[in-house]
Write a structure and sequence with these properties.
about 300 residues, alpha/beta, two-stranded antiparallel sheet
């Protein structure tokens, strides 16, 4: 028995007329009658009572009709779900992101993706760049927002957000009421830094900026989360140079100031494995669309 036999049977059962059913199926009436006879022979019971004027379902035919409808509905659903999955419109994506990205590009991309593809479930994990690389290699995340550069075989990266650096000061700092800060004024201050081993793409521009201002930053504390760095600044443990989007993280006791010196640009990049799934491709396209608007 093939699915087409069920479709032939359902057409006849709904029309209760072989001629109309044949027209509906775009086939001749004699072959349709033969197909139904072959189906009855295979099943071992009669589906229809036929007279010269009428066609009626038998009791067994009625039960078979109801169950056949369920089967074809399930098959049609399976086909539809398969098509949606193949187009990246259905399934699940596990997404990693560095903490600072939650204050710039991540919310907008997630919102746009969920609007476009509401049937794709998103599972989010806040992770450092190194943790994301490891999980990506292991297949435990599908895509991630990291601090570049990324140079690893089998892993692709693409920048989706760029921003300058600013200074975070305790609100009690003598320069807290100034609009712009000259970086060399902070040369004697302890700096709260992000560990270089976890994000050289952020650490190196910060240190280079200080060196261009004529000093090497005094490492007062290290923290692996941007929110923690800002909290330590609020606790007057030191000052910090942070991405400009951290201004979106409002913390009592902290003020953000622009630098007088030209700031380097730091980035957020997406990373993913070779041969991405359709859902990953859809996510990438959404991010690219938003990035093109930004730039």
């Amino acid at each position: 028995m093939e699915l087409r036999h069920l479709r032939y049977f359902i057409a006849v059962a709904e029309e209760l007329n072989f001629t109309r059913a044949a027209e509906r199926l775009h086939m001749a009436q004699p072959p349709l009658s033969q197909q139904i006879q072959h189906l009855e022979a295979e099943l071992g019971f009669q589906l229809f009572r036929r007279t010269k004027r009428t066609v009626m379902l038998t009791e067994a035919g009625q039960v078979f009709f109801e169950e056949s409808q369920k089967i074809l509905l399930q098959v049609d659903r399976a086909i539809q779900l398969g098509k949606q999955t193949s187009r990246g419109e259905l399934g699940q994506l596990t997404v990693g992101f560095v903490s600072s990205a939650a204050h710039n590009v991540v919310p907008a991309i997630l919102q746009a993706f969920r609007t476009r593809f509401p049937a794709v479930k998103l599972e989010l994990h806040e992770l450092t760049t190194n943790e994301q690389l490891q999980r990506l290699r292991e297949g435990r995340i599908d895509i991630g927002f990291v601090r570049p550069p990324i140079e690893e075989d089998g892993i692709n990266s693409e920048i989706v957000f760029r921003e300058p650096l600013i200074v975070a000061l305790p609100e009690t700092h003598p320069s807290a009421d100034r609009a712009v800060i000259e970086l060399r004024e902070l040369s004697a201050e302890p700096f709260i830094l992000f560990p270089r081993s976890l994000a050289p793409g952020l650490y190196d521009p910060i240190v280079s900026l200080c060196q261009q201002a004529g000093f090497s930053p005094i490492a007062g504390q290290e923290a692996i989360q941007m929110q923690t760095i800002i909290s330590l600044v609020a606790a007057e443990m030191g000052v910090a140079i942070v991405p400009a989007s951290m201004q979106n993280f409002q913390r009592t006791g902290v003020v953000y100031k622009h630098l007088q010196e030209p700031s380097p640009i730091v980035s957020i990049a997406l990373i993913w494995r070779d041969n991405p799934t359709p859902a990953v491709q859809r996510f990438l396209q959404t991010a690219r669309d938003l990035s093109s608007l930004q730039y």
